[in-house]
Amino acid sequence: MSQTIVIKLGTSSLVDEKTREPKLSIMTQVVETVIQLKRQGHKVVIVSSGGIAVGLNAMEMDKKPTDLAEIQAIAAIGQGRLIGRWSMLFQQYGEKIAQILITRNDILGWTQYKNAQNTILQLLEMGVVPIVNENDTLSISEIKFGDNDTLSAITAALVSADHLFLLTDVDCLYTENPRTNPDAKPIVIVPNMDQGVPGVDTSNADAGSSVGTGGMRTKLIAADLATNAGVNTIIMKSDAPSNVKHIVDYLVKYPKKVLYDDNKSSREQSSEPLSLDQLKNHPYGKGGVISPPKSEEDLLSLQDAELKEIKERNVPLHTVFLAKDIDHHLKNREFWILHGLVTKGVLIIDEDAYNTLTNESGDEEHVSEAYVSEVEDDEMSEVDQDHGLLPKDVIEVKGSFHELECVDIKVGKRLPNGKLDPDAPLEYVGRARCNFTSVELNRIKGLPVDRVQDVLGYDVSEYVAHKDNLAFPPSASSVSLQLKT
């Protein structure tokens, strides 16, 4: 069965932390692994960090500069050398590669997002190995992905990958830091990231190496993003890249899936664990169906069963975060709104409005490919407006933004006078691309639709955001949101 696989390598995996010399032996093993996977009929994308570190080595600099222009100049020097090394190694096997340098600016528009998607997919169809990296030569803090773990998750979603491999300096996720606590227990399978990872302390997740920006914290965020896009995410040790093939073989031959209650939306899924008897008798390695554990004890019981399975099948130690199935993962446009765009402000709505929006749109494909191809971004709000966020639903507006810019949506408490309760907590629930500017919204918030045109003095959309420009994550308490705050 042909699979699409994204392999992410961090700077510390590719460049020696002390000497800044490239780890050519690791890069060679990656190339050999990619070739073996391609010979099996799989398609492979590499997300490669290391441009700045290679540039530092080329310029014989001991440490990364702090000046933005200097960092970008170093990135320009290093990125060419890095892709040159990849090209040289792949050429030895007659394989072609393509360099894709990307920033958030490149996917801010839906058309741009689709263009990036189509380019990478076309390269894969041509048998070429795309090598993706953030364009550090042009990126500034406002438009950076922040780290290549996040970029790899977005890339995996772009190409509808089956598996995302995050290669790092540990062999799997542990309940605690294995370097400081010898009693740390391995977590080899995480069925549902919406419930987090019970028993795992993420508060002290490492912040990355001296030559990179990623750590375990960013990998958990990436796993949350990717699994919600329908991509299995695997953490494994980078010093043995050939293990990628062994793990792919295992996951393809013995697939696993999460048990969902189809009478509930993805936000209401039960997390009742399997009983211990079920754990003992359930053949996970033969395509077992898994219920998400909701306590540390349940999670560790699940680990014992899966750990036994991978040892019996001689599969390298790793952690797999199981993807949501096609009926429960985010659709293409939803993912773009939630994770591809930069937010410029906040809309605060009440709980009734949120419940109405999520109940109406919970099981629908928000926008068809045919619909998107016929409608430009600025026309989206004028087409097929059967429901969406109304002005009367908005309690408060924060920030300054233009029409069709992205904003966070938060739920707050509305007082009897229609104002926001300043003492009540706010909960992030999703994002929207607004049909109005922040100035306009501040004038019409809380108003019924029939008063909006009179207040503004011109004809406008009846919706603050059409349903096709609204997106809600499967869980407002997901790991990525916890770790970002």
From TrEMBL:
SUPFAM superfamilies: Carbamate kinase-like, PUA domain-like. InterPro entries: AceGlu_kinase-like_sf, Asp/Glu/Uridylate_kinase, G5K_ProB, Glu/AcGlu_kinase, Glu_5kinase, Glu_5kinase/COase_Synthase, Glutamate_5-kinase_CS, PUA-like_sf. Transmembrane segments: none annotated. Keywords: Amino-acid biosynthesis, ATP-binding, Cytoplasm, Kinase, Nucleotide-binding, Proline biosynthesis, Transferase. Residues 4-235 form the Aspartate/glutamate/uridylate kinase domain. Signal peptide: none annotated. It is found in: Cytoplasm. One of its GO terms (molecular function) is RNA binding. GO terms for biological process: alpha-amino acid biosynthetic process. It comes from the Eukaryota. Residues 262-295 are annotated as: Disordered. Its main location: cytoplasm. One of its GO terms (cellular component) is cytosol. Pfam families: AA_kinase. Belongs to the glutamate 5-kinase family. This is Aspartate/glutamate/uridylate kinase domain-containing protein. It comes from Candida glabrata (strain ATCC 2001 / BCRC 20586 / JCM 3761 / NBRC 0622 / NRRL Y-65 / CBS 138).
